[in-house]
Each structure stands twice: as structure tokens, then as C-alpha cells.
Amino acid sequence: MIYTCTMNAAIDLYVELDTLQPEIVNRTIDEDYQPNGKGVNVSIMLKKHGIDNVAMGFVAGFTGNFIQQSLNDLNIKTDFVHVDGITRINVFMNADKEYKVVNQGPSITDEKQQLLLSKIKQINKGDTLIVSGSLPLNVSDTIFIEIAKICEEKEIDFVLDTSIASPEQILKHKPYLLKPNDEELAAFFNLEHELDENEIIHYGQELIKQGAKQVLVSRGEKGSIFLNEDTCFVLTSPQGSVLNTACSGDALLGTFIGLYKQGKSLEEALIHATATGASTAFSKGLSDLTDIPQLVKQVQITRRGLNE
């Protein structure tokens, strides 16, 4: 079984406007409300591929109830920890440019954090846990280390997709996969410039040397790069009209883990994942997968030698 964990879930409100102007009433021409949070997105994408999974994490108030009910309506099992407060609502506006307004979310008590960890301890050996997204108020990034340790001890495949200052303590517990974007990868090594392809491969290899079993780097319109101890694949992205980039990395990750765990070859899983990430960028929300057969034809995959 695949489990996802979203500690700072959200409802995402997508709105479209002709223009966005200050100090006047701006009327929208389209709107859409969707359950969100990076792990929630991964759960939905897995289900779109017909893969059962369980969504975990924290939810609060009427907005949290909306997220749980929305997932249940999609036949996705949930095992959330309910907390006080209101799960956040984020706003993504597409006008002359794309605007993103992201809120903080509720504060999580130590007691509720321990309850989540106890749920994770009940996951079975050989299962997969995907932890994605930002941390809510009052939760330290040391919780990722605790989760990594639990997964190592219980032989759970631990996948992490989040912005953290340094992954060193997590890497000691040999995570199954890290999925940074190119900016996050640079931040891991205290770099402030945009990484080129060779640099991404170099620093991806460093994460492997420090303990990660696999690394998948999302690069937006440039595609993705995958590394493990033996292999490096560079993939280009299909091109199209971008409507929303917020969920592309989640679609990439969910598709890759889901298809790879189902027995697809590494190359096939990566190609479909890259196409699905692009399809999501061309959509208001997560891809409905209808354009994937065409988009996979545009993805070019190249094996790169390591230590080049």
C-alpha cells in the first residue's frame, strides 16, 4: 500500500481574470475549488492511475472536512489527524501573469504530532510513505528525521518532497527517494544560482552518496532528472500553454512512484511522470490524463553517464 502524508493541507482556489488591477473590484471569469496540499495531490494522482492509497496528515475545521470528504468521494481512504483551527485556503490567480497567495494554516500541538507519528508506526513493512509539502505552524523539520527513522526501522519505503534547510540527518536513514526541484536542490548545498544540467547531476550524486537511494529533480519546463547509484536519466518536457504550475511536481512524483511500484520499467515510469507533470501545468488543476498518450511522444529521455 502507498500512503501519503500532508502536514499542511489546503483548499486551492483557482481563479481566472482578464486583468488584475489594484483598488477596484476585479471580476473573475472562471473559478475552481480543489482539495490540495502536495501529499493530497499525490493521492489524487495515484487514484487517477487506478492505484489505491491512504491519505494521512493534519486537517482542521470545515475546510479540512471538505478535503476529507472530497478524497472519500474519489474512493481514496483517509486517516487524518483532526486538529483545532481551519485548514488554509490558497488562491492562484491567472490574469496577465500568474499570482500565488499561500496562507500559513493551523498550529499543531505536540500531542497531535505524536498522534500522527503513532499512525505512521502502524504502516506495514514493504509499504511506501510519501511525505510532501510544507510544515504547519509549531511543527519543526525534525519531524522529518523522526519519520525517516521510523521508516528505516520498519523497512518502509520513505519518499520525501519538501523544502528543508539541510537533508543530512534524513539521508542517514537511507530514504527511498528524494524529490527536490532544482531550486531546492541548490538550497541543500547553500547555492543561490540556477543549477545547470551538469550541476544537477553532480549534486544529485552527492545526495546518493550521503544515503538517498534515488533522486528525482523536477525542472519545470526543462523536464526532470533522475539518479540512483547506477543510472542517470535526463528527460525533456513537452511544451504547451501553461495555466498553473502549482501541482506539476506532485503529478510527476505521484505518477512515477505509482507506475514504478506497479512494475513499469524505470524509463517508462519516468516518461509518463514527466508527461503528466507537463499536462498538469497545462491544466487548471491536476491532469485528467486525456492528453498523456500524445505528450509522452514529446518526451525525450537520455541516459547520462555518472561522474561526467
SSE layout and pairing:
Blueprint: E1 2-6, E2 10-16, E3 30-36, H1 38-48, E4 53-60, H2 61-73, E5 77-83, E6 88-94, E7 98-101, H3 110-120, E8 128-132, H4 142-154, E9 157-161, H5 168-171, E10 177-178, H6 182-188, H7 197-209, E11 214-218, E12 224-228, E13 232-235, H8 248-261, H9 266-281, H10 292-295, E14 301-303
Parallel strand pairs: 1-4, 1-8, 2-6, 4-5, 8-9, 9-10
Antiparallel strand pairs: 2-3, 6-7, 11-12, 12-13, 13-14
Q: Could you explain how this protein is built, in words?
A:
The structure is a single chain. With 308 residues, this protein is an alpha/beta fold. It has two domains: 1-150, 3-Layer(aba) Sandwich (UDP-N-acetylmuramoyl-L-alanine:D-glutamate ligase), CATH 3.40.1190.20; 176-308, Ribokinase (UDP-N-acetylmuramoyl-L-alanine:D-glutamate ligase, 3-Layer(aba) Sandwich), CATH 3.40.1190. 34% of the residues lie in helices and 24% in strands. It contains ten helices and 14 strands. It has helices spanning 38-48, 61-73, 110-120, 142-154, 168-171, 182-188, 197-209, 248-261, 266-281, 292-295, and strands at 2-6, 10-16, 30-36, 53-60, 77-83, 88-94, 98-101, 128-132, 157-161, 177-178, 214-218, 224-228, 232-235, 301-303. The strands form three sheets. A six-stranded parallel sheet has the order 5-4-1-8-9-10, sandwiched between helices. A hairpin with a 3-residue loop joins β6 and β7 (98-101). α1 crosses α8 (248-261) and α8 (248-261) packs antiparallel against α9. The longest helix has 16 residues, at 266-281. The two termini are 37 Å apart. It catalyses: D-tagatofuranose 6-phosphate + ATP = D-tagatofuranose 1,6-bisphosphate + ADP + H(+). Residues 11-288 form the Carbohydrate kinase PfkB domain. It comes from Shouchella xiaoxiensis. GO terms for molecular function: 1-phosphofructokinase activity. InterPro entries: 1-PFruKinase, PfkB_dom, Ribokinase-like, Tagatose/fructose_Pkinase.
